[in-house]
Design a protein that fits this description.
Helices cover 55% and strands 7% of the residues. The protein is built from nine helices and six strands. The relative contact order is 0.12.
């Protein structure tokens, strides 16, 4: 049996200013996005993306992640609590972000990028899909440091006791998700996108991959209180939100089969 290390959630404190580990994890996520994005642009001679576009993707993507992620958490998981404490909605440094809400925010922000630079929306999402998992992994490390989103009770030897919960050993589900969403999904997408793919295919793999891995991890994660929690079908909120992702991903892969790769800026176009 293990005990959570109870790391101080404040990484740096200077006077009245405190920088939390959770916030630093988001900073690391955004830095990884830029580094990996530059690598993809540099090593793809046929890429229509530039450093200027990448910088815009980061800026508007950050807004989408923060706004969408927070609102998703508020609406999907703890709507009752935030109705009673509305000002706590803005305390994002304490944790409490929904991936599914953040995803919707990012997808909306990429619509703006696609229109601004006259690019197909799915081409934009195909580009950013492999850049997302490392940030997800960093976020899960932030969850672990905050000792939040702990797992279900277990009798495995690596079961961990988390503070402020109980004295029962639980799955360190944050670390499971770090491995699945941050490492496994990254390897899958980075390898798959290394070769030219039909437009929408990489986005489809992302949707299927994340939805499947998240649904699997939910079997080890303690369901959060929300307006659904565990339904009568035994499906958690995280799984309910992942099901549409998987279905959309399958649809994208099916539609992408009618595409073929060509050269130049119009790399992908329909077969005749």
């Amino acid at each position: 049996m293990l005990v959570h290390p109870q790391i101080d959630p404040v990484a740096i404190s200077v006077g009245t200013i405190s920088i939390h580990w959770y916030g630093l994890m988001y900073l690391i996520a955004f830095l990884l996005f830029i580094v990996l994005g530059r690598y993809r642009i540099k090593h793809n001679q046929n890429s229509v993306f530039t450093q200027e576009i990448l910088d815009d993707m980061l800026f508007f993507g950050m807004l989408g992640v923060i706004i969408g992620g927070r609102l998703g958490h508020v609406l999907f998981y703890q709507s009752g609590y935030y109705l009673e404490h509305p000002l706590r909605i803005f305390a994002i440094w304490e944790g409490g972000m929904s991936f599914h809400g953040g995803l919707l925010g990012v997808l909306a922000s990429m619509v703006f990028i696609a229109r601004k630079y006259h690019l197909p929306w799915l081409k934009v999402t195909d580009f950013i899909a492999p850049l997302i998992p490392p940030g997800l992994g960093a976020g899960r490390i932030g969850n672990f440091i905050n000792a939040e989103l702990w797992g279900r009770t277990t009798d495995v030897s690596w079961g961990m006791i988390f503070p402020y919960v109980d004295n029962l050993p639980r799955h360190p589900s944050q670390l499971y998700q770090f491995f699945l969403e941050g490492i496994v999904l990254f390897i899958l997408l980075w390898t798959y996108s290394a070769k030219p793919r039909p437009i929408g295919a990489v986005s489809g793999i992302f949707m299927i991959g994340y939805g499947t891995l998240r649904s699997f991890a939910e079997f080890f994660r303690e369901p959060e209180d929300g307006f659904m929690g565990i339904s009568t079908l035994g499906i958690t909120m995280g799984q309910w939100l992942s099901i549409p992702m998987i279905l959309v991903g399958i649809a994208l892969l099916f539609l992408s089969k009618n595409k073929t790769v060509s050269s130049g800026k119009n790399m992908l176009k329909a077969k005749k």
